[in-house]
């Protein structure tokens, strides 16, 4: 009773640019990458075997949505001169990092148990790694802009 898993294609990203090559109406790069990751996970897990639907599949989906939520919340914090707001923003950024790590581990477990294909796990890990790097760069940028924390 095993279900056949297929490799879904990644959606093509279309973005408008101005004459200078700057993205017009673009959002924070890490948010765009997290949305790409989440979309891919939702596509992949839609075809996962039923026995994983309320365990690994659900966790993957929730972690991916949690990452986006934390990124949006962190981006909405107006830091200004408030130390408390700086700490709140940093805490949200770190929560997103933790969720990305949990997502990657859960994807690995899902692959080992046959819930997703190895190729799908590789794609999830690559996208999560990209998000982690971009998020780390954002945190470092905040540290430079607002002082060491």
Describe this entry's structure for a reader.
The protein is mostly helical. Helix content is 66%, strand content 0%. It has one domain (29-146): de novo design (two linked rop proteins) (Up-down Bundle). The chain is built from four helices and no strands. The longest helix has 31 residues, at 83-113. It starts with 28 loop residues before the first helix and ends with a helix. 27% of the residues are buried. The model is unreliable at 1-25 (pLDDT under 50).
Beta content? under 5%
Largest sheet entry: none
What is the total domain count? Answer: 1
Note the overall shape: elongated
**Helical content, roughly?**
55-70%
The name of the CATH architecture is Up-down Bundle
- Could you spell the SSE succession in H and E letters? HHHH
Distance between the termini: 54 Å
Summed up, the helix count is 4
Q: Which secondary-structure class do the elements indicate? A: mainly alpha
CATH class: Mainly Alpha
Query: CATH superfamily membership, which one?
Result: 23S rRNA-intervening sequence
Multimerization status = single chain
User: What is the residue-mean pLDDT, rounded to a whole number?
Assistant: 84
**CATH domain fold name:** de novo design (two linked rop proteins)
């Amino acid at each position: 009773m095993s279900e056949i898993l297929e490799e879904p294609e990644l959606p093509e990203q279309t973005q408008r640019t101005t004459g200078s090559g700057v993205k017009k109406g673009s959002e924070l790069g890490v948010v765009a990458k997290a949305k790409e990751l989440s979309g891919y996970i939702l596509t992949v897990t839609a075809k996962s075997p039923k026995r994983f639907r309320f365990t690994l599949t659900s966790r993957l989906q929730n972690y991916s949505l949690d990452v986006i939520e934390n990124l949006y919340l962190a981006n909405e914090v107006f830091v200004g001169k408030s130390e408390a707001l700086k700490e709140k923003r940093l805490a949200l950024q770190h929560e997103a990092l933790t969720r990305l790590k949990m997502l990657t581990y859960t994807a690995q477990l899902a692959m080992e148990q046959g819930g997703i294909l190895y190729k799908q796990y590789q794609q999830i890990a690559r996208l999560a790694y990209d998000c982690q790097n971009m998020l780390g760069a954002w945190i470092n940028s905040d540290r430079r802009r607002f002082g060491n924390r």
